[in-house]
From TrEMBL, chain B:
<feature type="domain" description="ABC-type glycine betaine transport system substrate-binding">
    <location>
        <begin position="42"/>
        <end position="311"/>
    </location>
</feature>
<keyword id="KW-0732">Signal</keyword>
<dbReference type="Pfam" id="PF04069">
    <property type="entry name" value="OpuAC"/>
</dbReference>
<dbReference type="InterPro" id="IPR007210">
    <property type="entry name" value="ABC_Gly_betaine_transp_sub-bd"/>
</dbReference>
<protein>
    <submittedName>
        <fullName>ABC transporter substrate-binding protein</fullName>
    </submittedName>
</protein>
<feature type="signal peptide">
    <location>
        <begin position="1"/>
        <end position="19"/>
    </location>
</feature>
């Protein structure tokens, strides 16, 4: 082996410790206790990135869907653009956005927002389109203007479909955040990538399980919100 | 760039190279190149995400903390991502490897076909590196004692069976070799092209499993690949039953560990003095042993770095 300084340093050879970290067990208590703070930080970053992306995505998707609903000519381009965005591979998406955002959390959020648009716009639009024409006419007959019609009749009726889209968008954002690890903002993805490079089983498993837990909990929470917002759907079924 | 590069990241790299027409400082911060060496209070230390880079970044951060700076760490997948950030001042300090970084900057400035500037000669390599780094607003601090060169390892049984001790032996044997390495290996002069030209080794394919990654080493252990590209500071080879074949014709370059800083933010005497204290102490063997604690024992890079700096009385 070429190069200077290749011998053992100071003649000290420390023995390999025998614990579940050194044994590389899949499940390892010492991993949890030594990395508690790191795991917590990663989970919080994961939640922050996902939450921001979905909220901004929703704020953008809602007007886009309303515009696409109101003006027929707009729906083609809106759906086409958001769908094309969805087909861009995530690694490529982040590198395309890199010159705009630099190495930052906003880079990851921006990428996730663009992905969430397809799911959100399509579902909100489907919900709006499913509002029966008779319902709309009845509201107009009662003297509802277009804004009041949208806010009090159309959007509430579109909620079940919109919420379905929101749930899918949220769960997919939870998994896509991990790709942000390439720029150092990937939440639990940072741990998964680092763990895969060194075959660190406990880290890969723990971080992956936490990812799944976040996705399931987020989905259940949104389901609860949907139930609260649309009591009539359950009343009709019961 | 020779280090661990997950295969899918190649796509990013390719795209970045296109986007990399933005090479050099952007218009807004072009002035920084000629700005005086700076001394920002808050410094971001970058890591390229592989163990040794993490360890060095941790040590740099802790030394800078000790010297009174506030630091934070940013881990990025590869050089294509962190080098532009270093130029723009989003990252202020990164651990680099003299020859590899010189060649990378050379390819960026003069195109991929430019004749390499990194060589086994450290002084010549440093001169070339500083000449390439300066116009980008980067300052290369003095190199330390630690060297992390590329090294090629085969399984011990394979070496025994075919009487291999050096890469020349492998070339003479005429064996067909599948090489586990980063996907960039096919074009790096110190990798596939060099093995073929300098040593006459019959490389049939490059298996893009990354540089010295566990999957790469496992592939050689299992016989799926015959040789793996790793580094002189890899302390885990014996666990996989691998031995390094000597680079007897000096294909590998002077890859001394050097801190590279953004000149206008961290080029002042403060950071230089803080980081130089490590240079005088850290050896290749130290780096290998620290790497082993992180890779095999799975200790936290942060804790391993702190324990080392304390042991060497570099921090209190």
């Amino acid at each position: 082996m070429p190069g200077p300084d290749t011998g053992r340093s100071n003649g000290v050879v420390t023995a390999t410790p025998d614990d579940c970290l050194a044994r590389n067990d899949w499940i390892c208590g010492a991993y949890l206790s030594s990395r508690g703070q790191i795991l917590l930080d990663a989970v919080l970053q994961h939640l922050r990135l996902t939450g921001l992306a979905v909220l901004i995505g929703l704020a953008l998707a809602l007007p886009l869907a309303v515009v696409a609903r109101r003006w027929r000519w707009a729906s083609g381009p809106v759906l086409a653009v958001t769908t094309i965005l969805y087909t861009i591979p995530s690694l490529a998406m982040f590198s395309l956005l890199l010159p705009l955002y630099g190495l930052s959390a906003s880079l990851v959020v921006a990428g996730l927002v663009l992905y969430s648009l397809t799911l959100l716009v399509r579902n909100i639009l489907a919900g709006l389109r499913a509002v029966p024409e008779e319902t709309r006419q009845a509201a107009r007959g009662l003297g509802y203007g277009p804004v009041r019609l949208l806010l009090t009749v159309e959007l509430p009726l579109a909620l079940p479909a919109a919420m379905a889209g929101l749930r899918i968008a949220t769960v997919s954002a939870v998994s896509l955040v991990t790709v942000g690890a390439i720029v150092g903002f990937g939440g639990l993805g940072n741990l998964i990538y680092a763990g895969m490079n060194t075959y660190f089983k406990a880290q890969v498993l723990t971080a992956s399980v936490l990812c799944v837990v976040i996705a399931v909990v987020a989905d259940l929470l949104l389901l609860g919100v949907q139930r609260l917002l649309t009591p009539w759907t359950r009343a009709a079924r019961g | 760039m020779r280090r661990r590069l997950p295969a899918p990241v190649a796509a990013v790299v390719a795209l970045l190279l296109f986007a990399g027409c933005s090479g050099g400082p952007s218009l807004e911060n072009r002035g920084e190149v000629t700005a005086p060496p700076g001394d920002s209070h808050h410094l971001v230390v970058g890591s390229a995400g592989f163990t040794e880079s993490d360890l060095l970044a941790q040590m740099y951060a802790q030394l800078l903390d000790h010297a009174g700076y506030k630091t934070s760490l940013l881990t990025v997948a590869n050089r294509e991502l962190y080098e532009p950030a270093l130029e723009s001042g989003q990252i202020d300090v990164v651990p680099e490897y003299a020859a590899t970084f010189a060649d990378w900057l050379n390819a960026k400035a003069n195109g991929p076909d430019a004749p390499p500037v990194g060589s086994p000669d450290l002084a010549a390599t440093m001169t070339a590196l500083r000449r390439l780094a300066a116009p980008r607003g980067l300052t290369v601090l003095p190199p330390g004692r630690a060297v992390d060169q590329n090294a090629f390892a085969v399984s011990a049984s394979y070496a025994r069976e075919h009487h291999l001790r050096t890469l020349s032996d492998l070339g003479r044997s005429g064996l067909k070799v599948r090489l586990a390495a980063g996907d960039e290996c096919v074009q790096r002069p110190y990798c596939e092209p060099g093995l073929k030209k300098t040593y006459g080794i019959d490389i049939t394919a490059v298996d893009p499993k990354g540089v010295g990654t566990t999957p790469a080493k496992k592939a050689v252990q299992s016989g799926q690949d015959q040789m793996v590209l790793t580094t002189t500071t890899d302390a885990t080879l014996s666990q996989f039953g691998l031995v390094i074949l000597a680079d007897d014709k000096h294909l590998q370059n002077a890859d001394y560990v050097v801190p590279v800083v953004n000149r206008s933010r961290a080029g002042g005497p403060g950071p230089t003095a803080a980081l130089d204290r490590l240079n005088k102490v850290l050896t290749t063997a130290d780096l290998a042993s620290l790497g082993e604690q992180v890779d095999s024992w799975r200790r936290l890079a942060q804790d391993v770095a702190r324990a080392y700096l304390k042991e060497k009385k570099l921090i209190g």
